Amino acid sequence: MKMIYGVKDRPTAGKLLLFSLQQLLAILAATIAVPIIVGNNMSISAALFGAGVGTIVYQLFTRFKSPVFLGSSFAFLGPMSAAFAGGVSMSLGYLGLLIGAAFAGAVYVLLAIIVKFAGVKWIDKVMPAVVIGPTVAIIGLSLAGNAIGDLMKGSATVPVLEWIIKDGLPIQQETAKMLCSPYLALLCGLVTLGVTIVCSVYGKKLLKMIPFVIGIVSGYALAAILTGIGHAAKVEALMIIDFSLFSKMQWYPSFAFLEVFKGGFTPPQSGSIGSYIGAIAVGYVPVAFVVFAEHLADHKNISSIIESDLLKDPGLSRTLLGDGVGSIAGAVFGGCPNTTYGESVGCVAISGNASVITIFITALMAIAASFIAPVITFLATIPKCVMGGVCVALYGFIAVSGLKMIQNVDLNDNKNLFVVSVILIAGVGGMVVSFGQISITSVACALILGILVNVLVNIGNKKKAAAVESEAKEPDAKTEQTENTEETDALDEVAAAVDENKEE
After folding, report:
1. Residues 91 and 110: beta-carbon distance below 8 Å
2. DSSP characters over 211-280
3. Is-contact 442 139, C-beta < 8 A?
4. pLDDT per position as a tens digit, 276-317
5. Is 275 helix (H, G, I), strand (E, B) or coil?
6. In angstroms, rounded to a whole number, what is the distance separating the alpha carbons of residues 59 and 65?
7. pLDDT tens digits for 239-282?
8. For 313, which DSSP code?
9. Phi, then psi, of 236 in degrees rounded to 5
C-alpha cells in the first residue's frame, strides 16, 4: 500500500487537522465504549483523555516512528468489571483499576526487557508469515459482527423493565429499547459506507484522504434529518440520534485517580488487603500476556502497510515499553488500560497517511475534546449505524492487509494449508477460552493454535534440511572422485604411448 505521506512527513496545517479529526473519529466509538460497558459511572471523557495521554507516552518511547494510536482495551473488560464488583474477589473500585493497570504495564515492561536481551529473530521463527498473516486477518474478521450489528442500531433508546429468571427466581431488569427502525438505521449506515467508498475511490487529492470524515458527516446529517422529522411528527421509528445527551452533559472529565481520593473503593470486610491485590493480579496479568500477542500482530500489520519493520526500528522492546507505560498513564486518568488500535491501523491504510505527527495531533485533540462538553457530547451522539458503516471498511482493510501477508506463501503445501486453516476457523468461529474471570480472546486463541500447528507440521524439517545438505555434498565428492579417476587414466595412456615410442 503506497503511502501518500510517510512516517516522517508533515502535512500542511489545514490537512493535518482534518487527518487528525479522521483518526479521532475512527478510534472514538471503541475508546468510549469500554467505560460505558464497565458502567459504575466511569467517565467517557476521562477515557478519551487517558487514550490521548497514553498515545503521547507511546510515541515518546517509540521516538515518533510508529503511526499507531492507543485506545481503551476491550481485553480487560472482565478484570475491570470485577474491580467494581464489590464481591468476594475484588472490591477496590477505582483503586483496583489503577493497581490492575500497573500489573498489566509491568508485564509489558518485563517482556520488553526479555526482548531487549533475546532480540526479535525468534519472533520470525515462532510466528512466520504463514502464522502472523491469517492472525492479522482474524483481527479484522473477529470484529465483523460488531460492525454489522451496529449497522442497524441508532443511539436513541428508552429504558424498559422486563422480567427475567435469575437463580430460579423472577426479577425485574432494566434494559434499553431502540426507538428507530432498524431499516432506517441500516440506510444511514449504508449511506455512510457508500460516501466513504466514493470519496476514497473517485475523490481527488484531499477528498481521497479524508473519506471517513465525509462519510460520517453525510451519515450523521441524514440521521439528524430523520430524527428531526421524527420529533416533529412524533414518530419513534425515525428517531435515530439521541439528542437528549446534550441535556446531561458531563462538563469535565472525572479522572480515575481523583475518584480514589473521593473514597471510590470499599475496604475489605474480611481478609487482608494483600489478598485483594493478589486477586487483581490474577485477573490482569494473564490478560496482559494475551494482549502481547495482539500487540505483535498489530505491529506486524502496520509494518507491512508502511513497508518498514517496526519490530526492528524503533524495536519491539520500545513498542512494548510504550504500550505498557502508556497503558498505566492512560489508566491513571481514564481507568482503562490502553492497547494499539486496529481502527487506527485501518485508517492509515485507507487514507495513505502514515504521518506520525497526525497521530500526535490526534492525541492532543482527544485531550482537548475531553474538556469541551459540547464536543464530547456531540461525538457521543454519533449513532452506531453511522460508525458501523465506517467500521465495515476499517475492519475489512485490516483483514485484507493480513491476507496480503500470505500472498507469497505456498498454500499448495499441506503444512502451510493446515496452519492457515486452523487460524482462520478458530478466529472466525470465535474460539474463546475462559478460566474464571480470565478470558483468552479469539485472536489470541487462533494465534496460539497456529503456532502449535506450525511447530507440529515442521518437526522433521531440521533433519530433512540436514539430509538435503548431505546429499548436496555427496555429488560433489563423487564428481571429484570421477575427475581424479579420469585424470589417472589419461596419465596411464600417455605413459603407454611413451613406452611404445621407445620400443619403436
Report:
1. no
2. HHHHHHHHHHHHHHHHHHHHHHHT-GGG--S-GGGGGG---S---HHHHHHTT-S---SSS-HHHHHHHH
3. no
4. 777 777 778 877 876 787 788 889 889 988 989 898 899 999
5. helix
6. 7
7. 899 888 788 777 778 888 888 777 545 555 545 566 677 777 77
8. I
9. -65, -30
Contacts of 16 (CB under 8 A, 6+ apart): 10, 355, 357, 358, 361
CA–CA distance, 177 with 156 (Å, rounded to integer): 9
For Cα atoms 327, 329, 332, give the angle at the middle one, nearest 5 degrees: 105
Distance CA 127, CA 135 (A): 10
Cα gap 222→188, rounded to integer Å = 6
Residue 176 φ then ψ, to 5° = -105, 130
Q: Which 3 state secondary structure label does DSSP give 339?
A: strand
Residue 173 is placed in which grid cell?
431488569
- Give the whole-angstrom CA distance, residue 404 versus residue 427: 17
Centroid of chain to Cα 144: 13
**What are the C-alpha distances in Å from 126 to residues 122, 265, 373, 414, 456?**
6, 43, 47, 18, 12
Closest CA to 380 of 241, 488, 228: 241
Most confident of the following: 34-38, 214-218, 361-365, 469-473: 361-365
Answer for the pair 62, 298: CB distance below 8 angstroms, yes or no: no
Dihedral sign computed on CA atoms, order 490, 493, 499, 502: negative
- Identity of the residue numbered 26: A
HSE value, Cβ hemisphere, 13 Å, CA-based, for 205: 3
For residue 246, give the DSSP letter. Answer: G
DSSP string, 34-102: HHHHH-TT--HHHHHHHHHHHHHHHHHHTTT-----EEE-GGGHHHHHHHTT-SSS---HHHHHHHHHH
List the beta bridge partners of residue 435.
438
Closest Cα partner for 426 from 410, 407, 448?
448
